[in-house]
């Protein structure tokens, strides 16, 4: 699966190119608990087709009815300047629309967004460009501005600016079984997945549609891949000849997550090699994660992949994980407890 924003914008582009009327809906503010964050978008076609979401489903049903059903009460217009509406202002409305804990959403409706502007935006996103889309709230005019960094949605009395990025990318070193599980999960989470393995015996059995498989040496691919702040690099081969150089190249980039599988002993040995042979220090290795994943007692390849994907998403979303989920911390505690038991016994 690809980045949901690109999916929504592409569908909206196609509807408008086909001459169909359509609505772009953006979550611009939330109060209390909300099912979708600010900046989330959905597209609604005059025939009732919908892509994306702004809630858990109930608001979407209401919008489809108001926009696409002839004779609907409180029908939405099909043209005009952008309009905003709040859902869940009262406890009764929140319950009716399935909003949790009295949550409230404010949505912005854009009627029949310009097809040429949508095509330009989708083309830029598909090319890997981060783009800010500015909408004038007085007349609906849209301007597109290349952006240097991700930004939160911004809205005032006259304009809305929503920044759209290309898909997050995951570069996996190694095409083994665990890589297949991780690649599958990453694609479901909207990551574009690239897998690198120069070993024929591993590539020959690769079977994950949608994940690009490369035969290059991993460090060469990292250089050409140019990891950015929307990229994670994960080494899964257990082979220092493949993992170490790729990780060292990744550490020179702004990738938001860089890590390698392995035990605490293997992780310590990797750090030692990098310090002895490549001149790295503890400080310069602080962004190298390992053992990777969160502690969920995982034993099998799919469980370990869940653990790794969970940590990647936490880092991506800016969530600080408690120490009780840190693999090395928990296993050190278990080792201490086992040793104490042996002494006491």
TrEMBL record:
<feature type="domain" description="XdhC- CoxI">
    <location>
        <begin position="15"/>
        <end position="65"/>
    </location>
</feature>
<protein>
    <submittedName>
        <fullName>Xanthine dehydrogenase accessory factor</fullName>
    </submittedName>
</protein>
<dbReference type="InterPro" id="IPR052698">
    <property type="entry name" value="MoCofactor_Util/Proc"/>
</dbReference>
<dbReference type="InterPro" id="IPR027051">
    <property type="entry name" value="XdhC_Rossmann_dom"/>
</dbReference>
<feature type="domain" description="XdhC Rossmann">
    <location>
        <begin position="170"/>
        <end position="312"/>
    </location>
</feature>
<dbReference type="Pfam" id="PF13478">
    <property type="entry name" value="XdhC_C"/>
</dbReference>
<dbReference type="InterPro" id="IPR003777">
    <property type="entry name" value="XdhC_CoxI"/>
</dbReference>
<dbReference type="Pfam" id="PF02625">
    <property type="entry name" value="XdhC_CoxI"/>
</dbReference>
